Amino acid sequence: MLSSSRIFAVNHKKISSLNINNVCCSKIRASLKRLKPHVPLGRNYSSLPGLIGNDIKSLRSVLSPPAAKIRNIGIMAHIDAGKTTTTERILYYSGYTRSLGDVDDGDTVTDFMAQERERGITIQSAAVTFDWKGYRLNLIDTPGHVDFTVEVERCLRVLDGAVAVFDASAGVEAQTLTVWRQADKHKIPRICFLNKMDKTGASFNYAVESIREKLNAKPLVLQLPIGEAKTFKGVVDVVSKEKLLWNANSDDGKDFERKPLLEMSDPELLKKTTEARNALIEQVADLDDEFADLVLGEFSENFDLLPPEKLQTAIHRVTLAQTAVPVLCGSALRNKGVQPLLDAITMYLPSPEERDYEFLHLVCLQTATGDTIVSSKSSALAAARRAEREGEKKHRRNSEAERLLLAGVEIPEPVFFCTIEPPSMAKQPDLDHALKCLHREDPSLKVRLDPDTGQTVLCGMGELHIEIIHDRIKREYGLETYLGPLQVAYRETILNSVRATDTLDRTLGDKRHLVTVELEAKPIETASVRPVIEYADSVSEDLLKASQEAIENGIHSVCLQGPLLGSPIQDVAITLHSLMIHPGTSTTMISACVSRCLQKALKKADKQVLEPLMGLEVTVTKDYLSPVLADLAQRRGNIQEIQTRQNNKVVIGFVPLAEIMGYSTVLRTLTSGSATFALELANYQAMNPQDQSTLLSQRRGFT
Ligand SMILES: Nc1nc2c(ncn2[C@@H]2O[C@H](COP(=O)(O)OP(=O)(O)OP(=O)(O)O)[C@@H](O)[C@H]2O)c(=O)[nH]1
């Protein structure tokens, strides 16, 4: 009975380590497999204090620690900032692994896929569970490359906190902004880790300023570096006024000493640290009333008397409130600064208990017959709509549908596509199966059938994305497939209003199907991927009730394949002006008539191709700036600004996606491999008439 049906969006669960593991279970299994020679299959609890003899209570807390002792966190950053290297060190110091893996040697735990190891990049998020000083940490290492943004998004939804890793010589980079925005959207408290402090050009102050300016965040400087670049050897803990120095002779960074700063031995550093601590106390007091009362009352005369724990508790509160972000620094590659980062994770990031997930109070997995479990926002909405149709009470429906929206993942539209063919027709079902599985795992991969050729078409987020999918089909499903040329996913729109009328009159058997439709298509200003559908007052409500779904299906199917290139039509509104349906006409016929009528209207309209415009950021040394700019000019690039970032120039601008295919190879050649770039879809822009007609001729095979 529908009144008892409930809808759960539960594709990502959280709270326990088991749940996080479910998100990326294949990856964990593979990690454990690789670790077999070193680690017994099961968790290494060596770092947990309190497990004595047969103490059942302790044992229970080891197996399932109280929620207050759990941290579900993610590591996120721009590509190559050092997430995987930092994760690798974290696993080593926590006792999860017994040797240090290296991205450059292709032997890290979290980058286990063959493609990740070969390319030294993270493609799929990996979850690992380990313990640190009595806390259970469930950690996800996420990819930095923009092609795998969805992977980051799906992880952020299950996290309670995140560590944002930065390359200290570059500060905030293009993809940092993207992941930061995603974390803002999911309201994830964060800690910043300024990595690569050992690298030439590393600058703590520059990186902190870039967090303030570009991310519009309030950095809380909890550490100061001791030395920078080649001279980097440790950090000062601003909260406790202690210095942490790593033993230069230790090759794994386990050995470091923590000493209070003294006037006698470190007068300068002590002075700097006291200033930084006072500034930190004032900053936190500004953000937290409880702490302000404490500081102004008892400690206003001398901040030195304020116990570190009081400051730490207040920092925890402002981190949780996301009014500021603690900033730490180190060098994961040189094994410095990672243990204090782990302490900060347990100290400042929240436990699951401290986070409020409204939709999770819905989702307690006590399901019963009649419940609906859905896997995405669109299926949640479809289920909610179905529930609505079948008569649930109005107020309950609305609030439920709204809450379900919280649980969805936003999947960006793909910008590239290409055909994919199996080695033989007999293998088509195997290919379909592989693509179905891969799509389930990675919803940003879309698969469709070309209605004209019957070919399977892969749609993805970028060249790398499609390349990796191709490779995975070969390695994981044993299928050698053939990819057609990579093509840009264009869109279409119309430039003027057009009207059409159509009648469909067909008799099948002894049944007459008769529909007459009049509709109008017009351009709209607001960017809308799906057509806006409106009904004129003259259309009878009763008629509409019975046929609305069929009408909308007809409209949507036409808008998926525009008349120019067969690309989706966007920024249009369709108004149904009149509708006449003969009794007994099937909904299929209604859909067919609406589709035909809309196609007729679109044929008459002035049409425009829209092309994906990419935001581009190229980081290049001064010597190579000119060739990079000259090349971008040839690619119809529009340069917005050129910033100076340490010793580099950063070119920021826009370039049509069609012009930037294979850019990594060209850029490597132009700059002897010294430049890096990041691309992100900015919007869809109208092509100029000349480029549009060239494109149309190419597609029609005339050039
Ligand atoms: N100098 C220096 N290099 C580092 C440091 N940490 C990482 N690297 C190097 O930076 C490169 C990228 O490191 P990764 O750990 O793969 O970075 P990532 O952020 O996981 O990369 P993606 O997942 O592909 O985005 C590798 O060559 C590392 O050796 C560091 O602290 N100092």
UniProtKB/TrEMBL annotation:
GO molecular function, one term: GTP binding
Reaction equation(s) it catalyzes: GTP + H2O = GDP + phosphate + H(+)
Pfam families, alphabetized: EFG_C, EFG_III, EFG_IV, GTP_EFTU
Domain Tr-type G: 68-353
Chain sites annotated for binding GTP: 77-84, 141-145, 195-198
Localization: Mitochondrion
Entry GO terms, CC: mitochondrial matrix
Annotated InterPro entries: EFG2, EFG_II, EFG_III, EFG_III/V, EFG_V, EFG_V-like, G_TR_CS, P-loop_NTPase
Task performed by this protein: Mitochondrial GTPase that mediates the disassembly of ribosomes from messenger RNA at the termination of mitochondrial protein biosynthesis. Acts in collaboration with MRRF. GTP hydrolysis follows the ribosome disassembly and probably occurs on the ribosome large subunit. Not involved in the GTP-dependent ribosomal translocation step during translation elongation.
Protein name (Swiss-Prot/TrEMBL): Ribosome-releasing factor 2, mitochondrial
Organism listed in the record: Equus asinus
Gene symbol of the encoding locus: GFM2
